[in-house]
Amino acid sequence: MNFKSTLFPLRFFVVLFLLALLPLSVIVVNMARASAPLAVPSAPSTAGDWPMYGHDQSRTNYNPDETTISAANVNQLVSRWQQNVGIDSNQTATSSSPSVANGKVYVGSSVDSGNNFFSFDSLTGTPAWSSNLGHYNTCFNVGIGASPAISGNVVVAGGGDQPSVAYYGLDATTGAQLWRVPLNAGSSAFAWASPLIANGRTYLGVSSRCDNPSVRGEVRGVDYTSGLNPASAYFVNAGQAGGGVWNSPALSPDGSILVAATGEDYSCSPCTYVRSIVTMDPATMNILQSNKQGADNVDQDFGSTPIIFHDSQNRTLVGAHLKQGGATPYFFTYVLTDVNSGPIWQRNTSLSTGMMDAYDPTLGSGGTLFIFGGSNLLYAVDPANGLLDRWTPVNVGAQAHANMAVANGLIFLNMGSSGLQIRSETDGSLLRTIHPANQGPANSGVAVSNGFIYWLSGSYLNAWSLPAGSVTPTPTPTRTATNTPVFTITPTNTPTRTATNTPVPSATNTSTAVPSLTPTQTATTPPTQTPGGPTATDTPSNTPTAIITDTPTVTITGTPPTSTETPTACAISFEDVPPGSTFYPYIQCMACRGIINGYPCGGPGEPCNPTNDPYFRPGNAVTRGQFAKIATNAAGFVDPPGAQQYEDVLPGSTFYDFIWRLTDRGLVSGYPCGGAGEPCGPNNLPYFRPNASITRGQIAKIDSNAAGYNDTPGAQQYEDVLPGSTFYDFIWRLSDRGLINGYPCGGAGEPCGPNNLPYFRPGANATRGQASKIVSNTFFPACAP
């Protein structure tokens, strides 16, 4: 790209995303699924993986093997792990999107020095290895520009080393260097293009460090196991510059046609293949066909990775965005075998440079093409003509980054500092926005794989899934695309919100014998987390509230979240919770998972029966410490705790681990030291008051946040929970899902208003039975009667 001085201020921002090579999230169409999907060529890694940028060789960003995350359970997604991969001194996020294969996640970083390429266990986040692939102060400070590709035991990644930037072949298990291929294209060459592995080769794009100066554009193919036997397609003559491949090459589903979208002219004559869609023979690298768009000597070039897809006429098509600086940008679509004849359709989408599109072959006749354009619009169009919108374009509210992912009827968009959006392919509606801890800027996209969502936000790699212990079905492709490559999409994470939990002062639970809880959800143990929680401070309530003993406070009035789990049967029973009692199914559900437990019989008023069943004491008040343990175990948070956070919660104490995990995620906080009986220590730590009773409002807040619910509240539901009040948002979210309810108006001190709204009693202390019901309904809805 020619960074002429007069164009630089504008182009700095436009080109940043183009060079980032990371496409935006795609929106899916509201249509019936195709009844007879086409056959899909296998990806070079295990089904369910996301082994390269765009998921597959055709760069469709569609994972047909991802069936775990669905519209029915996106609100149950939680953070499973988070790892800090670092960020450069200018706080510029990397352009490398995560790739997933063989149980590992691979991603690059923008750090200025030290190791900048990482491998983590995909389930636990445990670091596997890291490597230093060199550091090049590029024009945008993005560090590593390319997303890695994995095939077998080889991972191919772009480096940032100097004086000659290179691509690397690394051992996927150990990180050992297998080969290094320098670009040798001049001092400005840089590895922006994400590698493509197919046909025993890895195909590498060559472009420049922001045309300072420009280099000779090229796609190079080398043996992916050794880096040897290079063969190249050049787009300008030797000794000339232009036609750089900023974005990544794509390959037809049958492996017979390689495609690249090239940059503008710089100093070439003739400039036949610049600003062009170019097809090549992947074996010989001979150029087959091309079509050129845009004007000479200006910043008008193709600004996105080409995507290969099909339509209702069973034509194999290829499309990409033409940037056209200073002119109207278009998405151009060609018949792959007849690019010479020019585009068969074009559409003005106000390009968002560098954002990659997506294609779901099973949605509607001929599938649906999702395009992210300028003005933050997401389009879902008919691939045959690009004009028939499956639904009205949706404004997603902010810039999406790199690539979107589509899977199982969902669209995933990395919005950087605005969170990760999950939208419906059916109509583009927003189902959930996830805000992870340590949220920050992004230049990279999303990978959805085997029930997990992976994405970068700021310096952190995030992994979200359903809670630990949830049933994870074996990926079974239900929508097999015709000639459309396979990819795996993993849903994201549950936003970690800044909770300002409002504790009740000094009310101490009379039941201090809290059973130890041993979670049974050990199927996929979440990894170590490195987030730093918010520092919100609780504001204690001034008046202790009365304990509600036996009156149920939770009544299901709506349809609980759908779950695929089978209710757990076990031998655990409690003397004071007989079958048929109000809280029996919920207490049984939680006890069988090791999330709650009871008190041994034999105490005052608790005689032992022949089987010595314990007592649960469902009418007893729940303390802040007890509920921290219940919520943490239900959400599957098991990361090792760190340094002491509260003066009255000492390392090794009963609730230390659980309170630490919630605080680290910003879900709970405490009281500033200095109050009566709470002197300030050397570090001025706050107090948590783990033995104080917890209220219904506080439980609603912790439960809602731990489940990741963050939808915008609607109209008032309870007479005593006013819009804007402390717990309004959280109570609304649980009530709207039918997980909690209140008391009919008309009782003592609870007069009926104009709308006869019920009362929630947010300041009333919650009981152990009530807490069990709320948490069970939220995290294990299949247990509901």
Give a short synopsis of this structure.
By secondary structure, the protein is mainly β. The protein is built from 7 helices and 35 strands.
Helix and strand arrangement:
Elements: H1 8-20, E1 78-84, E2 99-101, E3 104-108, E4 117-121, E5 127-131, E6 149-151, E7 154-158, E8 166-171, E9 177-182, E10 189-190, E11 196-198, E12 201-208, E13 218-223, E14 231-234, E15 241-242, E16 250-251, E17 258-261, E18 265-267, E19 276-280, E20 287-292, E21 307-310, E22 316-322, E23 330-335, E24 345-348, E25 358-360, E26 368-372, E27 377-381, E28 389-395, E29 405-407, E30 410-414, E31 420-424, E32 430-434, E33 446-449, E34 452-457, E35 460-465, H2 584-592, H3 624-635, H4 656-664, H5 696-707, H6 728-736, H7 768-779
Antiparallel strand pairs: 1-35, 2-3, 3-4, 4-5, 6-7, 7-8, 8-9, 10-12, 11-12, 12-13, 13-14, 15-18, 16-17, 17-19, 19-20, 21-22, 22-23, 23-24, 25-26, 26-27, 27-28, 29-30, 30-31, 31-32, 33-34, 34-35
Helix pairs in contact: 2-7, 3-4, 3-5, 3-7, 5-6, 5-7
Explain what the structure shows:
The chain has 785 residues and is mostly beta strands. Helices cover 10% and strands 21% of the residues. A hairpin with a 2-residue loop joins strand 2 and strand 3. The longest helix has 13 residues, at 8-20. It starts with 7 loop residues before the first helix and ends in a 6-residue tail after the last helix. The model is unreliable at 1-45 and 471-568 (pLDDT under 50).
